Amino acid sequence: MDMDTAVLKAAMRRELPQLLEEEPVKESVIKATQGLYADQQKTEDRFLMMMEELRRDREENARKWEEQNKKWEEWNRKWEEEKAEDRRKWEEQNKKWEENNKRFYEVHEEIMKMADKLDRKLSAIGARWGMQSEMAFRNALAGILEENFGVKVLNIREYDDTGEVFGRPDQVELDIIIKNGMLIICELKSSMSKGDMYAFERKVRFYEKRHQRKADSLIVISPMVDDKAMSVARELGIRVYSDSTEVDSL
To answer: Do 193 and 117 fall within a single domain?
Structure first.
């Protein structure tokens, strides 16, 4: 680079900024270069237009997102409703199965109880005619009482040396239950006649007198009790049941 060129460039660097600030020069520069860039107003308008487009895009995206969320919520709601309905149907079906099973076992149990009662009645007939032991029949009835009420049926045998019960000295046999301090005296027999009912009442009084304790309840359990014996039981306050399973309370 020669000396003249260097001097010229130095002078331009020094003087040009000031010259550009002078109005005639400034206007000339602006006119000469205005085609190379947008003016301030156009720039602002373009900026505002871009911001408006961004706003519209944001609002459109928000609207689409909200619509999609609504669709998902609706789908989830239907899915939950279907699951709830399926669960309800399943529970309802299970409940029906449980009820059917329960009823089946109840019917089965009822049938077995009826069969057992029939068997005991047949045993009672056998005992009455001497084909089966009366004691075996008594033990069966006592066993049911013990199972149903959680008690112990005690077979008591005492000798009546004065003949108070049968009119002559003889052995007196009774079944007793002690429950919560109460004394319950039972007669467990295959059959009961009018005379048997009176005899039971005399055995009770004999026991009460000997032990100085009054019975709280008198119970007869027998599948065969004639009408006259039932009438005597009502007069004497004796509860009568045809089977141990029919006893309501002790």
So the answer is: no
The residue segments making up the domain with residue 166 are 133-246
| Residue 35's pLDDT band (cuts 50, 70, 90) | low
Question: What's the domain count of the chain?
Answer: 2
As a three-state string, the secondary structure of the chain is CCHHHHHHHHHHHHHHHHHHHCHHHHHHHHHHHHHHCCCHHHHHHHHHHHHHHHHHHHHHHHHHHHHHHHHHHHHHHHHHHHHHHHHHHHHHHHHHHHHHHHHHHHHHHHHHHHHHHHHHHHHHHHHHCCCCCHHHHHHHHHHHHHHHHCCCCEEEEEEECCCCCCCCCEEEEEEEEEECCEEEEEEECCCECHHHHHHHHHHHHHHHHHHCCCCCEEEEECCCECHHHHHHHHHHCCEEECCHHHCCCC
pTM of the model: 0.51
